Amino acid sequence: MLGKREPEIYGSLTLLQINRGLTEAARPLGLSLHFFQSSHEGALVDEIHRIYETSPGGVIINPGGLTHTSVVLRDALTMLTCPKVEVHLSNIYKREPFRHTSLLSDIVTGQITGFGPFGYHMALLALHHQLSV
User: Fold this and answer.
1) pLDDT, tens digit, for every residue of 60-90?
2) Residue 124 phi, psi (nearest 5)
3) Percentage of the chain modeled with pLDDT above 70
């Protein structure tokens, strides 16, 4: 629902627009991207299990509300040994207290929060850097 739900918090770009921008930004870096979105926790876990088998170079994830609640998402991400970047469009630490806890922050390589859609581009550059070191 990106671009529709609370645009004053999450911005007006749709997920498709963000993904297109990331694809363009990844091209000169020599990176290929795979996108997956679901509002269903089990579908996200299944996708992480699927990409585990392909040995991905890195993962950018915006776990949304599951950030604060999903132990199974955490467990699935823990299986991945590649760099992982947690992205939040809003600054979760400037919002309601229940959003201040991320069950993923200690298992990801880094967290980018509060920069809107540009946070995904920051995450892409961070992954590129991690893969180049």
Assistant:
1) 999 999 999 999 999 999 999 999 999 999 9
2) -60, -45
3) 100
- CB-CB contact of 60 with 87 (8 Å): yes
Active site residues: 10, 88
Residue 102 is encoded by which pair of tokens?
């991320």
d(CA 78, CA 84) in angstroms, rounded, equals 10
| Tokens found for residue 47 | 């996708």
Residue 2 has pLDDT above 90, yes or no: no
Backbone phi, then psi, for 21, in 5-degree steps? -65, -40
Backbone φ and ψ for 80, nearest 5 degrees, come out as -80, 130
- Token match 């739900």: residue? 5
Residue 18: which residues within 8 A CB-CB, separation 6 or more? 2, 117, 120
H or E segment at 17? helix 15-26
